[in-house]
Amino acid sequence: MANCKSWFVCCVVALGLLGAVALICLGVAFFAVQGCPSGSFGRAAVSADSWICSKAGRSMLQQGGSAVDGAIAALLCTSVVNPQSMGIGGGSMFTIRSKTGNVKFFNFREVVPKSFKENLLNDCPTTFRMSPGSQWIGVPGELRGYEEVHKQYGKLPWAKLFEPSIQLARGGIEMPPYLAKLLNNSFVKNLVEKSSLCKILCDKNRIVLGKGDILKFPKLAETMETIAEKGADALYTGEIGQDLIKDIKDAGGTLEMEDLKSFHVRVEDAWTVPLGNIRMHIPPPPSGGALLAFILALMKEFLPNQSSLDVYQKTQMYHHYIEAAKFANGLKRSIFDPKFNKTKSANHLIDPNFINHIRAKIVSNRTHDVSYYAVKPSSDRFGTTHVSVLDVDGLAVSATSTINEIFGGTIYSPRTGIILNNELTDFCGRADTVRAGEQPPSAMTPAILETQSGGLLVIGGSGGSMITSAVALSIINHLWLGMTLKDAIAVPIAFVDSQNNVKFEPGFNTSVIDGLKALGHKVADTPYFFNVVNAVEKEDGCIAAISDSRKMGVPAGY
Ligand SMILES: *[C@@H]1O[C@H](CO)[C@@H](O)[C@H](O)[C@H]1NC(C)=O
Ligand SMILES: *[C@@H]1O[C@H](CO)[C@@H](O)[C@H](O)[C@H]1NC(C)=O
Ligand SMILES: *[C@@H]1O[C@H](CO)[C@@H](O)[C@H](O)[C@H]1NC(C)=O
Ligand SMILES: *[C@@H]1O[C@H](CO)[C@@H](O)[C@H](O)[C@H]1NC(C)=O
Ligand SMILES: *[C@@H]1O[C@H](CO)[C@@H](O)[C@H](O)[C@H]1NC(C)=O
């Protein structure tokens, strides 16, 4: 009996201790969550282009999903809310950092089909304009990519990731404000009204939908339902693929079922570049990662060491930045599909010797002609979306996805509801040949940065050629000039176009513009700034998430 009694006492004591420990744990967790500044999150967050899609991602995380589940759900949702930016008719690049710090790059960007138009590059635009046309359609990789990253990192069932988007596509959503604004632009309005997209984006008088209208994608909802049930094979080997190929052929394109069947996701290690105390993980070529790293590595030595700068210091900072961007323009041709050219790759862009060599060519008191930077003028582009996700287990996903230009090549597949990419125009001005299976070079650069103190910044952008400037300046502003992540992204940018003219986003400091003009920079105007940066940062246990207000984005976390 004595034994039994002491056992009972032990048990009570043990339970009491356990309870106390549990209470302490709860208290600490509560304090950690409560301890984060307002507007930041304690556990996980998603920064997508729209609130509705940030929430679609968050709902996956809250149901026990991983950051990859969240990113896929947010992107599928974006294909409905911002159908001009991306969709399952396009391709993506994902940079994924595991909890233990291993960083992988998943590349499922479109490739050139086996058969393509002879002398395709002769069709390249020589001035700034959109490139509709079925000759530019690359083999879409989006769903094969989702399948691969989900296989490796997914925690929720595949079909679950499609639920929010199927519901939006079928039930309809009130016209998203950013899309309404875009469709109200006379240039985009004309483009859409004259294209097959009018079937989903116009009213019965063939006028584009606007504010207050309901946007629906019934065919896409059906397609997504089939894919949710049967997997990516429904598109790559099954009936949806056959329907898509029929529609592409009806539009004059060259894609065959064989192109879909042979699409493969490429998986490799991300490149890691040191930037002082920071370790930056970037996607390798044909992504734009090396150009971003090149600019940041150049800039590191030129940066003022304080955050509050006078006009002279600010002008010098932007002068050096613009010089770096001019050299980066001259180096764009170093970015190409490494599978198709063993002779030369972008490795030198992150080589300290090469960076020092270029740095020595930058002088503080003047700029130079285009030839000094070896720039071969081409034309600029825009489009794309980015989503940054961090989950409660510490998995980080930086994902950039695109159908290239606004609504891709404006080709809609009526049998499947899919909008097709015009990715092959990315070869224009940056390559002299095009080969079957090759991926076009890209500006996309989904990045993940680690600070010495253990902080993590998951960042990337959209806006075609503006991606590099937008992401580079956000990182400089935040990590080196000490701005908050929100301010760092919100500050108007300076963009160096492909002719090396400098374009200032509205609101850019006019005294600095005058200073830069005095240094000889050629300034040009553009009504179009499509730069958008979405980022998530974890520092001291708290997560800041920023979706760029330029695209009316709002992040979601918990
Ligand atoms: C559409 O554009 C016109 C001018 O082009 C402008 O007056 C109007 O306010 C815009 N409407 C919306 C909803 O943005
Ligand atoms: C900042 O840089 C200036 C000039 O390069 C130097 O004189 C100064 O000591 C630096 N200040 C700090 C705090 O590092
Ligand atoms: C431009 O920047 C300088 C230096 O930071 C600042 O003093 C000035 O007020 C700014 N000008 C404008 C118009 O914002
Ligand atoms: C490889 O790249 C270099 C440099 O861009 C170029 O000169 C060469 O023609 C390319 N070779 C092939 C086989 O594409
Ligand atoms: C720039 O500075 C160099 C020396 O640092 C000087 O020789 C040159 O004249 C200056 N150029 C201009 C345009 O001020």
Write the layout of secondary structure elements.
Elements: H1 2-35, E1 45-47, H2 51-62, H3 67-81, E2 91-97, E3 103-108, H4 142-153, H5 158-171, E4 173-174, H6 177-183, H7 186-193, H8 198-201, E5 214-215, H9 218-230, H10 233-236, H11 239-250, H12 257-261, E6 266-269, E7 271-275, E8 278-282, H13 289-300, H14 311-330, H15 352-359, E9 385-390, E10 396-402, E11 411-413, E12 418-420, E13 447-450, E14 456-462, H16 467-480, H17 485-490, E15 494-496, E16 502-504, H18 510-518, E17 532-539, E18 542-546, E19 556-557
Helix pairs in contact: 2-3, 3-4, 3-5, 5-9, 13-14, 13-16, 14-18
The structure holds 2-acetamido-2-deoxy-beta-D-glucopyranose (5 copies).
Task: From the structure above, extract its key features.
558 residues; alpha+beta; Glutamine Phosphoribosylpyrophosphate, subunit 1, domain 1; 2 domains; seven-stranded antiparallel sheet; six-stranded antiparallel sheet; 19 strands; 37% helix; disordered N terminus; binds 2-acetamido-2-deoxy-beta-D-glucopyranose
Describe this structure in words.
The structure is a single chain. With 558 residues, the protein is an alpha+beta fold. The chain is built from 18 helices and 19 strands. Helix content is 37%, strand content 15%. Residues 1-5 have low confidence and may be disordered. One 2-acetamido-2-deoxy-beta-D-glucopyranose binds at residues 180-181, 184, 211. The site of one 2-acetamido-2-deoxy-beta-D-glucopyranose has 5 residues, from loops.
| Straight-line distance between termini | 52 Å
Give the low-pLDDT segments.
Answer: 1-5
Q: Which value, in Å, is the CA radius of gyration?
A: 24 Å
Total count of strands: 19
Fraction of residues in β-strands:
15-25%
Question: Percent of residues in helical segments?
Answer: 25-40%
| Number of helices, where a helix is a run of at least 4 consecutive DSSP H or I residues | 18
Quaternary structure classification: single chain
Report the principal-axis shape.
Answer: globular
- How would you state the average pLDDT, rounded? 92
Q: How many structural domains can be distinguished in the coordinates?
A: 2
Kindly name the structural category: alpha+beta
Major sheet: arrangement of strands: 6-3-2-10-9-1-19
How would you characterize the largest beta sheet? 7 strands, antiparallel
Which ligands accompany this protein?
A: 2-acetamido-2-deoxy-beta-D-glucopyranose
